[in-house]
Write a structure and sequence with these properties.
Family: Belongs to the YejK family.
Pfam families: NA37
Keywords: Cytoplasm
Radius of gyration: 25 Å
Protein name: Nucleoid-associated protein YejK
Strand content: 25-35%
Oligomer: single chain
Largest sheet: 9 strands, antiparallel
Order of helices and strands: EEHEHHEEEEHEHEHHEHHEHEEEEH
Subcellular location: Cytoplasm, Nucleoid
Amino acid sequence: MPIQHCIVHDIDKAGSDQSASLRPAATELATSPLNEDLLSRFHDAYHAKTKAWGHFLDGGELEAGSTPAFTQALGAYLDGGSDFVAFTRDVAERLLPLVDAHLSVSGHLLCVDYQHGETHYLSLALLHQREGFGVTESLQIVPAAQLNLARMSLGLRINLTQWRDGTASRHYLSWIHDRGGKKLSEDLATLLGATEGIDATGETRTLLKAFSDYVEKEDMAEEQSREKTEALIDYANEQASRGEPITLEELSEMLDEQQPKAFYDHIRNADYGLSPEIPPDKRTLRQFRRFTGRAGGMSISFDSHLLGSSIEYDESQDRLIIKQVPKQLKEQLKQRKE
């Protein structure tokens, strides 16, 4: 990921009752392997976070004649009207009220303009420090402050290529949306002049439901079902780790090379309302797993999210209780009774 520009500004906040202040950097950081490594580790930490996905408000969503200050400043920087130092200092100053309102500790604002493949990105994140320990060349233990990437609570990434090209994508912008930081996320979106364009959690959940329906409709054997489940989860997690969306057509091709359009056609024919590209939600993916078992002429297979709702396991009696019998099975049972 070649870095075009990189800078770190310091946002100081002595305590919850103190106003945040900015100590801006005068110059950019020189490109170095260390900075490249930091960007890579930041990437991993950022994509492990729960995020909101969206886009900048467009003409139809804005009041007549208004343009959000952030997009105005970003456009001026990309067009050469301001340099990276001035642009990021302006952004840092605009973030001070958010830090005052939602955070009680200081942080370092990391700003990186970089390429990943043929795509141009801008990432911003407020990184906090934690106290650690180091060992000197004389083997003495010394205190050593470290950036705590896992604690990141304010961060965003913009796919500048998609934004500038004016593509139909409604999720070229993402920002951290942790469960405990909902108001911070909302205020950051307001500052950016952005709105959510897709519900990543809901879309991921619907995709997994569509996959479960597909497996049931195709009446797949246990081993085949497990293989396809693993293929889907591996692909989705790989896309999540890269910060890229799940592409339905690509996923369909991976699930069945002999019938590459089968799963895609199933989704479209059943009208699940899914977007062609879905930003994967890692938390939802972690919860997805198929429980399977076969014994004495009986085969059972169901998704883990059904346990506790449609299906209950009574460990003391060693029995499964199915509350919602599948329609096809219900009809067969009715016919057998007749």
